[in-house]
Amino acid sequence: MRPQYHERLAMMKIPIFSDRRARGDLIMTFQAISNKSSPIHKLFVLSSHTLTRGHSYKLAKDKFKIRVRQHFLSNRVFQQWNSLPEEIVNS
Predict the structure, then answer these.
(1) pLDDT of residue 9
(2) In terms of domain of life, where is this protein from (predicted)?
């Protein structure tokens, strides 16, 4: 009998898809924010409230009228990115 998906991932020591996607999203966000000439840089809006806790590259939550937009990269990564410590974001 063939092992289940999670068992195969555990045998190969590969993280589950949602973890791999979140990691890729954070890497792409870092690259877009640090490279202002990147075309996807326009997807991200930096927060104007920089006097609060955290790092200076906090993202502002994008407002959307249709539910499809809630799954865009800028909205998927918003909470995870803003919760990162300053040492990681500024590296």
Answers:
(1) 92
(2) Eukaryota
